[in-house]
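User: Let's play a game. I give you a shape written as tokens, and you guess the letters that built it. Ready? Here's round one.
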């Protein structure tokens, strides 16, 4: 018996040792493999935690684009179907009570068509106010502490964020908007899409062997925010004045609003910061797909999908950076600056009203001629004849060398999408001819964008330094810490400080006594230049009129550039007087706002009439490019040349 007991005991010990050894082996060698198998057989759950897209702020911290919480109403169809009518009826009743726009037929269809779905989105992007009553119903308790509605099950709310723009249409061309998936379209939303976007978090969970829920949470990483150079109040001034101009010059007989395009750009010429930018085709950032601001609902409904997108893209595009045009006489200061830099200008030029070039008579705006013109007077009078002679003195090699230095034909690389290329829209020393050279000298026969010309012009008045135009000055995280400061160092020097001072003086005289007088704001020293160019096919008599100006002259703090494309006015009123009047209104509002103080006396005549500087406002027949009080059509400058032959 003892022997038998010893054998049994030994066998038990041996088996125990073997079992322990096996367990150790499994744990050390095969443990991870078996753990995966076990966990793989258990119930898991996974829920995304959305990130918040970064905000867009104006230069003073005012929020221009932000996010609000919204919720998707989700049904667990399987849960509601598995227990017969226990959960289904009370849950449907609760949904109908709290969400008046949901019908019983709609819920029943979801439960019947997707009976095993645990994720059926019944409503998207609901504000918190609309789900609050249902959540209160779910959470309501009796006096004994138990739930009052325990059978209301299978409904939950998935949190998301919706992009909102507190100021609606304001700065729409600068900001852009977002579509599904936090994808920016146009403006800063597009250009800085990756900066603004973050990374979704996720919550993982599974039921362990004790049927308890185990959770692991990976927190989302929110996007960074943009602090822009845009000043909200300056942007408002721009938008309001464009709207007013469009309404004042509305003519239904000529297809409605005041112009095909009206663009205004305001920038700091000392560092390239864009303070405001807009055109007349604004849109509601909170409803960017709406066409009814420009078309009737009936017209909009008739558009094909392709046509609808074409119309929307035309509205969304930013005229200030995506459209090109001939600048007209706003290009003349660059010709003068080139001549000063190369030392090839004469002291005086004789204007007899015409120059014979390339077999064509190219006339000055003053048919009888300005007579003897100094360089300063040529700018003041906007004398084409003198400018053509300057271009010939400069020569094509130096002229086009400086066109490149001024960045004409090159992108500015402003931090916005869609900047137009102009490299094929200008001449070079290799492909020009004499006619092209001299017409280029007064701003015809080559194309620019608004931002391109404004950036180059800034270098003429700030001492000669070219800055990259930009709309973002720093990037911050959600705590307000600076992630990146945008470098505002000058990219290059276009002209010497001496040349800059001379050109500033010429432009000051142009506004004080020359063709830009109607842009003058009483009490402020200002400089600037008007421009008029006839578009494309010359026989159609379509014009682009403009004015670019700055203040104060001594240390320019603000530049305003106005371009009006195809103004809706009679032919005899197609002049830069339209642009100077609009620019003056903008200057009158932004100069006091920016704390730029008056630096000139306002002289009141002895007869008690209005101050002299104010008397120039609205002066009739102060037309672009001329000082004789008459308007000359630009196509007349090239006598005998057909539109097809125009270089």
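Assistant: Ready! My guess for every position:
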């Amino acid at each position: 018996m003892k022997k038998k007991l010893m054998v049994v005991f030994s066998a038990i010990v041996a088996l125990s040792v073997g079992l322990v050894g096996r367990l150790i082996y499994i744990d050390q060698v095969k443990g991870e493999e078996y753990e995966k198998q076990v966990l793989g057989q258990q119930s898991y759950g996974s829920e995304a935690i959305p990130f918040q897209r970064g905000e867009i702020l104006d230069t003073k911290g005012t929020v221009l684009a932000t996010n609000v919480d919204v919720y998707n109403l989700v049904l667990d169809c399987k849960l509601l179907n598995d227990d017969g009518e226990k959960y289904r009826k009370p849950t449907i009743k609760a949904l109908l009570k709290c969400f008046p726009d949901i019908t019983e037929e709609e819920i029943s269809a979801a439960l019947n068509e997707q009976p095993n779905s645990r994720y059926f989105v019944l409503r998207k992007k609901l504000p918190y106010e609309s789900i609050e009553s249902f959540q209160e119903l779910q959470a309501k308790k009796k006096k004994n502490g138990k739930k009052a509605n325990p059978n209301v099950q299978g409904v939950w709310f998935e949190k998301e964020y919706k992009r909102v723009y507190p100021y609606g249409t304001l700065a729409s061309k600068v900001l852009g908007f977002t579509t599904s998936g936090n994808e920016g379209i146009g403006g800063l939303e597009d250009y800085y899409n990756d900066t603004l976007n973050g990374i979704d978090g996720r919550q993982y969970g599974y039921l362990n062997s004790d049927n308890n829920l185990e959770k692991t949470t990976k927190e989302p990483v929110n996007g960074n925010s943009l602090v822009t150079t845009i000043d909200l109040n300056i942007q408002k001034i721009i938008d309001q004045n464009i709207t007013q101009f469009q309404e004042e010059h509305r003519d239904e007989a000529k297809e409605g609003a005041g112009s095909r395009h009206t663009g205004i750009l305001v920038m700091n010429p000392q560092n390239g910061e864009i303070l405001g930018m807009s055109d007349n085709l604004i849109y509601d950032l909170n409803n960017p797909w709406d066409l009814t601001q420009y078309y009737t609902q009936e017209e909009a409904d008739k558009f094909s999908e392709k046509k609808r997108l074409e119309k929307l893209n035309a509205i969304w595009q930013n005229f200030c950076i995506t459209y090109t045009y001939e600048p007209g006489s706003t290009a003349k200061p660059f010709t003068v600056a080139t001549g000063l830099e190369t030392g090839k200008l004469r002291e005086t030029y004789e204007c007899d009203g015409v120059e014979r070039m390339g077999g064509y008579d190219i006339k000055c705006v003053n048919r009888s001629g300005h007579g003897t013109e100094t360089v300063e007077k040529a700018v003041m009078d906007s004398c084409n004849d003198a400018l053509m002679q300057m271009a010939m003195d400069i020569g094509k090699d130096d002229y086009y060398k400086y066109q490149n230095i001024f960045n004409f034909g090159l992108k500015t690389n402003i931090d916005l999408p869609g900047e137009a290329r102009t490299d094929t829209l200008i001449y070079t020393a290799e492909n020009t001819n004499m006619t092209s050279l001299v017409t280029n000298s007064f701003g015809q026969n080559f194309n620019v964008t608004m931002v391109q010309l404004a950036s180059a012009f800034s270098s003429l008045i700030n001492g000669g330094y070219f800055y990259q135009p930009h709309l973002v000055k720093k990037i911050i995280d959600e705590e307000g810490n600076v992630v990146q400061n945008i470098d505002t160092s000058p990219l290059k020097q276009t002209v010497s400080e001496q040349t800059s001072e001379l050109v500033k003086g010429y432009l000051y005289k142009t506004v004080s006594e020359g063709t830009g007088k109607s842009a003058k704001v009483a009490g402020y020293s200002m400089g600037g230049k008007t421009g008029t160019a006839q578009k494309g096919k010359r026989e159609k008599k379509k014009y682009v009129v403009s004015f670019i100006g700055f203040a104060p002259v001594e240390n320019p703090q603000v530049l305003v550039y106005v371009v009006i494309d195809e103004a809706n006015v009679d032919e005899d009123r197609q002049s830069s007087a339209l642009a100077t009047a609009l620019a003056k209104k903008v200057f009158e509002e932004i100069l006091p706002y920016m704390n730029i103080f008056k630096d000139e006396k306002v002289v009141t005549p002895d007869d008690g009439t209005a101050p002299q500087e104010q008397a120039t406002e609205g002066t009739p027949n102060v037309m672009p490019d001329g000082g004789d009080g008459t308007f000359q059509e630009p196509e007349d400058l090239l006598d005998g040349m057909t539109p097809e032959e125009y270089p």
